[in-house]
Design brief:
alpha+beta; Multidrug-efflux Transporter Regulator, Chain: A, Domain 2; three-stranded antiparallel β-sheet; globular
Amino acid sequence: MAQPEQKSRVPAPVNDRLNGWKEIGSHMGKSARTAQRWERLLGLPVHRLGALGGRIIFAFRSEIDHWQLTSENPGPPLPPKPDSLK
């Protein structure tokens, strides 16, 4: 009888890791506070290490990029440009 396929998780390259809210926000062109808000409200994929939610925050560029491309709402819409700038 054949064994069910197991999904293997391939570790992300070392340079794919973003350490802390500043690096995560900077990668997206946003502030650390915006990254924190998007994690809380929109499900931005971050990882936590440590007890009770962790004090060490990190994310992977590949996961953030994928989230931005596939999320229905990867952030609030930009305000409309004034007519003089169009």
